[in-house]
Design a protein that fits this description.
Number of domains: 2
Shape: globular
Protein name: Putative coiled coil protein
Structural class: mainly alpha
Order of helices and strands: HHHHHHHHHHHH
Radius of gyration: 23 Å
């Protein structure tokens, strides 16, 4: 067995990351291990939650528990605590996803968002292709396998995964670090699963080393099932809600037809009010910290001016949101 195919971890941190995210590919673990603790926490949350909108002022993982707050309109999006469906948070309804797909030209970065939509469609096809490849080939005996067809399908899927990763990195939109790293890590894990499946399908005649992956069963059914779960995770992360801020969506609703989207505008405004309340509080604490450590910073005045200006803009935005809600009622 080639040494490079064995799953070695350099330290306890990498082992913890592997366990938390269920990935065994060395490259995937290394990428995720570069994230800070809070970024890892946020990245992991994408794997077990519903669609959740974000603000450009969200601190990493700042608003995971806002559903417990009382708000007339927010409650329409987030189920009550005694609701059986409350475990799955959804503050970005499917109707908003559909609206964005049809009206991305209303955004401030329509060219790049069109590329994003194309990538979302492409990754759905790629992950489906990998799952079908494993399902169809791992159930056949060595005598029934057409090795040329297997290699051709394998090479095509591998090339598409590589191209996708490159295209995703070239997107000129603001993507949170946790999202960017998680997408790449999951795609590398998918690539790893594809290579393993090809080796298993071709059996003893395979020219590919068989990786040792503790997370997978040695039976083909285990690999197929794991890859299906991996596909679900990838599609969950590659959702519009993780790339389009609520601020951007609000502008799009207003640019399209405010009267038609009255309810949506109220809901987005309510969500942003909650998020900005948190962000404003954090900003004030940060400014207080700067003031208390005035003598420790050479650029104190410049930094204080910058932070104060940002705070004022955030508070003005919140006032505008409240007026918007009142006017829409």
């Amino acid at each position: 067995m080639a040494a490079s195919s064995v799953c070695w971890f350099d330290d306890l941190r990498e082992e913890s990351v592997s366990y938390a995210f269920g990935v065994s590919c060395k490259e995937s673990v290394s990428i995720l291990a570069r994230l800070s603790r809070d970024e890892l926490y946020e990245a992991n949350s994408f794997l077990d939650r519903g669609r959740e909108g974000f603000s450009v002022h969200d601190r990493t993982y700042v608003s995971r528990n806002i559903s417990c707050r009382s708000d007339e309109y927010y409650s329409k999006l987030v189920p009550a605590a005694d609701d059986p469906s409350a475990d799955t948070m959804c503050t970005f309804p499917e109707s908003w996803v559909c609206f964005f797909e049809k009206n991305y030209v209303l955004s401030d970065n329509s060219v790049e968002y069109k590329k994003l939509l194309d990538l979302i469609s492409e990754i759905s096809d790629i992950t489906s292709g990998v799952c079908l490849f494993l399902r169809d080939n791992l159930r056949l005996s060595n005598n029934d396998i057409n090795r040329d067809d297997v290699y051709q399908s394998f090479s095509s899927l591998l090339s598409r995964i590589t191209t996708f990763i490159c295209s995703f990195k070239e997107l000129r939109i603001n993507v949170r670090k946790s999202v960017s790293y998680l997408v790449e890590a999951l795609l590398l894990q998918l690539e790893h699963s594809l290579k393993l499946g090809c080796s298993m399908a071709l059996g003893p005649l395979s020219r590919m080393p068989l990786p040792r992956l503790p997370r997978f069963n040695t039976k083909s059914g285990g690999l197929v099932g794991d890859t299906g779960e991996l596909r679900s995770a990838i599609l969950s992360v590659m959702n519009i809600c993780n790339f389009v801020s609520l601020e951007e969506l609000l502008l799009m609703f207003e640019r399209d037809n405010p009267s038609l989207h009255e309810g949506d505008i109220i809901m987005v405004s309510s969500l942003l009010e909650l998020k900005y309340a948190e962000a404003v509080s954090i900003k004030k604490v940060h400014i207080e910290h700067i003031v208390n450590h005035e003598n420790e910073s050479d650029d104190f005045e410049e930094l204080l001016k910058k932070e104060t200006s940002e705070l004022e803009k955030m508070e003005e935005f919140v006032v505008g949101l409240r007026k918007k809600r009142i006017n829409e009622k």
